UniProtKB/TrEMBL annotation:
<dbReference type="InterPro" id="IPR001680">
    <property type="entry name" value="WD40_rpt"/>
</dbReference>
<dbReference type="GO" id="GO:0005656">
    <property type="term" value="C:nuclear pre-replicative complex"/>
</dbReference>
<dbReference type="InterPro" id="IPR019775">
    <property type="entry name" value="WD40_repeat_CS"/>
</dbReference>
<keyword id="KW-0853">WD repeat</keyword>
<dbReference type="InterPro" id="IPR015943">
    <property type="entry name" value="WD40/YVTN_repeat-like_dom_sf"/>
</dbReference>
<dbReference type="GO" id="GO:0006364">
    <property type="term" value="P:rRNA processing"/>
</dbReference>
<dbReference type="Pfam" id="PF00400">
    <property type="entry name" value="WD40"/>
</dbReference>
<dbReference type="GO" id="GO:0006261">
    <property type="term" value="P:DNA-templated DNA replication"/>
</dbReference>
<feature type="repeat" description="WD">
    <location>
        <begin position="267"/>
        <end position="308"/>
    </location>
</feature>
<keyword id="KW-0677">Repeat</keyword>
<protein>
    <submittedName>
        <fullName>Pre-rRNA-processing protein IPI3</fullName>
    </submittedName>
</protein>
<feature type="repeat" description="WD">
    <location>
        <begin position="117"/>
        <end position="150"/>
    </location>
</feature>
<dbReference type="GO" id="GO:0120330">
    <property type="term" value="C:rixosome complex"/>
</dbReference>
<dbReference type="InterPro" id="IPR045227">
    <property type="entry name" value="WDR18/Ipi3/RID3"/>
</dbReference>
<dbReference type="InterPro" id="IPR011047">
    <property type="entry name" value="Quinoprotein_ADH-like_sf"/>
</dbReference>
Amino acid sequence: MSTMQEVLVTSDAAGQQWNSSIWDPVAGTSLLTFKGSTSAPHTLSILNNEYILGALPTKSVIQVWSLQKTDNTQMQIVCPGRVTSLTTTPDGNYCIAAVSENIHIWQVCTGHLLTVLSRHYQQIKCIKCTDDGTCFVTAGDDNLVIAWNLAKVLADCGNPSHQVEPDHVWSHHSLPVTDLFIGSGGNRARVVSSSLDQTCKMYDLVSGDLLCNLVFDVSITSVTMDTAEYRLFAGGSNGVIHCIDMFEMPVQKERHIEKESEDITCFEGHKKQVTCLCVSINGGKLISGSDDCNVKIWDVFSGQCTKTLDHKGMLTNVFLIPTPPALLDLNTPRNCIIKPFQRHLYIPGEQTDESDGTVTMMFNHSEKMESVVDYMSDVSSYLSQITEISDPEEELAKCKEEIAMLKSANHKLFQFAAKGILHQEEQIT
């Protein structure tokens, strides 16, 4: 396990065995699983190589798990609405999530909602960040692909009247955009989008120019490229994956891709549409996920399927990441702090209530739960002792002290106990 350069992360729509799982892509074995419902498509993300985030498909909740095997803590963060796409910046400082057609950006360490962007007019399906975190790109059902500069977006945070303009708005697609890929190079990278209009389009993030238009004979549901950006892989709604050589001569701005062409390699094996694609660091292996409930690992050069990972439902998220240190060393210290995400826009200089509109629940955290139970036992004991009252005024003062302390705790269980004391206070008076 110590020799693994990268690991595979998958999630399916069934959620019978796990919400998401981490695999060894070479051996095809499961290394770590995370329980709890399912994660919606394009909402599974790794935060700072320490946590994994996934949004529920039917509720406005983001689930957070630790990547360390010894820590079984699960956090649930309530959002302003159902999250349709999610990503985090490479440095782990910001979480960018789409709630319907709006883009929300939170600061992870404080939970502050820094800004809400409104430029799309239909549901956003995909958000991707550049490798240096300076820019991000969004796309959705309104056929638009929009590029944003993160520094420009956050420069005037807390001012709801100020509308930030994106760097580029690409409207070349005629049907909903299904997937995005951003190459290496930071804000000088190239962006590739796939759409149901049977095309993949490549843009230059600096100039905003349309560099290439690939036309297929089938709707394209996923797209990716290798690390060198030498090959482009496009997964179709018919289960076929097309491999296109981007340096094919002569260079053409618009290319019509046909399955029977000699210069096109096709990976055939999926029975239903391909929903997820990713390529290994060395460019030798292609991993695909499909609605046929299978993840297939392909050898890029031979076009052969070397392994098939069976799942119980349609694949919603499949991607490769460099092996997190937390998987190799259980004593790896944590550098990332996650706070509950606020639902109201953060305004600098104003006091905000961290718990306003946001509920965070910790499961299987034995120490905290034991302290809550012990305190509740003390409260119950106190309530039973004051049934025989010798000095009503003194007992009433004690009740008020307990109420003030319980209210300040701001915990549901404590609030329930406070209601019981209030009831007892009414009996005393």
